[in-house]
Amino acid sequence: MGVIADQSLSAMLRQSADDFLTGSHSPSRLRGWIGRARPVESSLWHDIAALGWTGLLLPEALGGSGLGLREATVLCEVMGERLFAEPFVGCCVMPSLLLTQADNGPATEQLAAWQVSGERLLALAWQEQAGQMDPDLIECRVDQGRLSGRKVFVLGAEQQSVLLVSALEHGQPVIVAVAANAPGVRVEAFAAGIGAQYHVDFDQAPVLFEQALLRGQPALDALQLSLAGGRIALSAELAGQAAGCLQQTLDFVSQRVQFERPLGTFQSIQHRCVDLSIEQTLAKASLQHALTCHEQAPLTQASQAAISAAKARCAQAAILTGKQAVQLHGAMGFAEEVDIGLYLRAAMFGSAWLGSVWDHRRQFAKLTGENPIEAALEPFEASSSSDPREWSDEEFRARLRVWLTEFYPEHLRQNDRRPFLRLRGDDLTGWLRLLNDHGWRAPAWPREYGGMGISFRKQLIYQQEMERAGVGRIIDNGETQLGPTIIKGGTEEQRARILPRILACDDMWCQGYSEPGAGSDLASLRTRADLDGDEFVVNGQKIWTTHAAECSHIYALVRTGKFEKKQQGISFLLIDLSAPGVSVRPIANIAGEDEFCEVFFDNVRVPASNLLGELHQGWSLAKALLGHERIWLGSAAMAGSALELAGRLVTEMGLANDRGVLDRLACLQADLHDYRLFYAQICDRIAEADEQPGPEVSMLKVYISELLQRITEFCAEIAGDFGGIVGDVQIGSLLTDLHWPLMMARPVSIYAGANEVQRDILAKAVLKLPSAPRT
What is the architecture of the domain spanning 634-642+649-765? Predict the structure, then answer.
């Protein structure tokens, strides 16, 4: 009930904030301020105070609403979407978090009253140097109730503000309150984004209330909590800016007509918008993770790392979206009369404040070893059952980990030389049979067909533990693709005949989809299967068929009829590769392996009983199969292995002090961290709702395949002269092959539907961009 109540409250807050800002805060009011410090609009500030926003985070004892940071981030997201320019994060979120740590004395009560009523702004002044990330660098001094020193990049330091200032008194850190209009206070204002920032000098300025609000370690802890919460709230605002800017851009390109068609029908524009949508999705995943970590254990190293990752990702999303939005709006995007440029200015400010993208990436790299597949074993109560469906998730993980440690062959583990080794031939079948003998085969198959029948969540744990143990990559189309398709759409005779042979590796299956004229466009395939009595006669060719030379059977999409739509008249046929008329030709790939094959069919006779599903209805079977395929193709295992190799290379090449190299490595680490969060969210959604994957899973395949390519390219680049060597190379204590992973990463963005085609799907199915007119 608590989770439902929280979701309901968040939805109510979002709706009320959206209604208020839509009616009272047009971004057009922000025009005309370029180069001038825009002050806080006092009437609007009093309006949000009347709504209770300024006291949202203050406890009820101080006159506030007693809500948490999660509710504040809901408001911040909407503020970002609607381009609310007033300093809510700097003058509400951060001061409130500070006050909640102070004693509830008269001083705290008065400051809280000003905050709740909106009578005076509270502004946190903690920073003393550009690029400062931590609050413990303090040179301001308090002596006999007078403050001297300088603070920089302060928000809300206006005439009627009260500044909450960090300083030293008798060698101890303190937080004191100082009126911005007090004698001895000099404020320098400058334009920043769509508002203003201030540098503040104190020269014997009198301290309000004649006492510190916080003193000693509690003062530093309160500052840390305030900064952590502020960064999360600012991340939410930046994520909102990215979302609002993208939505305005989608609306614009869908309506703006050029060359007699909407701009949104052009593929180049659609693909740009899809990439921005992926960035926005990653930003929200990283933000939610940071918020959860902070709620569970604030100020821990893991929490701080998550916050830095979120701040960097959300800032990057807002900046990229703002820049692309200006470009996609054309000349109008460059005109101040159009609001879209305001999003870019706001993003530039938010990206820089409270730590830049690069500051936070460096912080993230410093705070985390970035090895998230090493999942800790949780305590569990052992079950007496031998059925894994009845084990808890914790027990399932522990039992599988122990079994893998004992039984997986050491010589088949992935290593630096083969960071994403693929099992083939006898190594593959031997391992699959061992899994089958011990009851660890086919986790997704129902028990009645010989599988484990475990939940989607346990399937995800299964995948994680295989990655953790360094198990070589497995391509077993019989288990992962054909088996589920037969279970869903096959006959009882087919299930009884084929499924046991898949599990025992008596039959090894390859996929026959692509053809020379039908790659990602499978509906254009031309391989024919004509019914002749109780047999089909198959003629045609398949290409890019993975490991066909090592397989005994192929499941193929074939043309069995002609209809108005190309997707009609396609059937799903099971073919024995040893049948007369079948020939297989291996194709060497650019990594030097015969991974792909051409398969030719010359009057091949196939029993009609090998038709899977209804005649002419093979397209629907193939589509259902591809959704789950892209979920597992979205695994970060290969990218994680490649990134571990990158870290080793940095050390072995003597680049551990090269700031440029380390920054690039930190960027890749943060990218993988945020992607893993997004992947987990998609998997959790499918597990909880027990639903089929939607078109958004194409985002997984697009992003992780291109990230893998960027990591392997980084490895080759930093290796210098070694990067040009084909085959094994010794670099310090590291024996590796840089050419092999670099080349093996290239087709990942092609198979299972080229990334360009996936972007087309996302543009139409997720972003709802218009289709190009038919010629």
Answer: Up-down Bundle (1.20)
Q: Write out the two tokens for 336.
A: 């101040």
pTM of the model: 0.88
Tokens of 680: 């987990």
Nearest to 446 by CA among 455, 438, 436: 455
Distance (Å) of CA 396 to CA 175, 458, 469: 50, 7, 15
CA–CA separation, 24 vs 147, rounded Å?
39
d(CA 661, CA 458): 38
Identified catalytic residue from 237, 279, 465, 629: 629
For residues 242 and 283, what is the distance between their CA atoms, to the nearest angstrom?
9
Say which residue the tokens 């406890």 belong to.
Answer: 59
- Integer angstrom CA distances of residue 24 from 11, 18, 27, 744: 20, 10, 10, 55
What is the C-alpha separation between 61 and 714, in angstroms, rounded? 55
> What pLDDT score was predicted for residue 177?
96
pLDDT single digits (tens) 33-50 = 888 889 999 999 999 999
- Return d(Cα 293, Cα 276) in angstroms, integer: 26
Helices 637-652 and 698-718: crossing angle in degrees, nearest 10, is 20
Give the integer Cα–Cα distance in Å for 520 and 760.
11
Domain chopping of the chain, boundaries: 495-626, 634-642+649-765
Query: Distance between terminal CA atoms of the chain?
Result: 55
Q: Do domains 495-626 and 634-642+649-765 have the same CATH topology?
A: no
Residue 388 has pLDDT above 50, yes or no: yes
In this structure, are strands 162-169 and 122-125 parallel, antiparallel, or unpaired? parallel
Listed as own residue / partner, the contacts of 294-297 with beta carbons closer than 8 Å and 24 or more positions apart are 294/69, 294/228, 294/229, 294/232, 295/68, 295/69, 295/70
Mapped onto helix, strand or coil, the DSSP state of residue 76 is: helix
Model pLDDT for residues 513-552, shown as the tens digit of each residue: 888 876 666 667 889 999 999 999 999 999 988 889 999 9
Do residues 474 and 432 make contact, with C-beta atoms less than 8 angstroms apart? yes
User: Given pLDDT bands bounded at 50, 70 and 90, which one contains residue 417?
Assistant: confident
pLDDT of residue 418: 76
188-225 as b/e: b if 16+ CB within 10 A: ebebbbbbbbbbbebeebbbbeeebbbbeebbbbbbbb
Predicted local distance difference test score (pLDDT) of residue 624 = 64
- The β-bridge relationship of strands 172-179 and 162-169 is antiparallel
Tokens for 227? Answer: 């900064």
Q: Is the pLDDT of residue 376 over 70?
A: no
Average pLDDT over the chain, rounded to an integer: 89
Q: Is 688 an annotated catalytic residue?
A: no
CATH number of 495-626: 3.40.30.10, 1.10.3210.10, 2.40.110.10, 2.160.10.10?
2.40.110.10
Give the list of residues 6+ apart from residue 37 with CB closer than 8 angstroms, or none: 189, 190, 191, 192, 195, 196, 197
